[in-house]
Amino acid sequence: MKLSTEGQSVERSGGVLRCPHCGGGLLRHLEVEVFTHAEGAAAVIKTTTASDGQARSTLIANRASGNPSPCGGGLRIKLTCDDCDAAPFFLTLGRHQGGIELGWAD
């Protein structure tokens, strides 16, 4: 199954998410960021949970937060690939015009 976004793709093959850089399947998550944002609000609550179990929440301007959704809540999962030397990257989910956009970000 291939989930497409504009100019990007997220592939799911046999239940394994593939690296956008090399196509490898040995991904590890480093942290998860959840953005809680009321539509139209200038600020967002960014909650980050790291793989070591530490969690923190901050109130930050939405435009400076990394939120993949310009008008609502969003989610970013920071990943690294054991199959290549790519710098950590994000799998993103963001609300846009009533739908959920799925994509990659650096």
Description:
By secondary structure, the protein is mainly beta. The chain is about 0% helix and about 55% strand. The protein contains no helices and nine strands. The strands form two sheets. Strands 6-5-4-7-8-9 form a six-stranded antiparallel sheet, with no helix packed on it. A hairpin with a 6-residue loop joins strand 4 and strand 5. The N terminus is likely disordered.
Measured between the Cα atoms of the first and last residue, the distance is 23 Å
How many strands? 9
Put simply, the count of helices is 0
Strand order of the largest sheet: 6-5-4-7-8-9
Which regions have little confidence, pLDDT < 50, spanning 5+ residues?
1-6
Portion in strands: over 45%
Radius of gyration, whole Å: 14 Å
Percent of residues in helices comes to: under 10%
The largest sheet, given as strand count, sense and whether it forms a barrel, is: 6 strands, antiparallel
Label the structural class: mainly beta
Return the string of H and E elements.
EEEEEEEEE
C-alpha geometry? globular
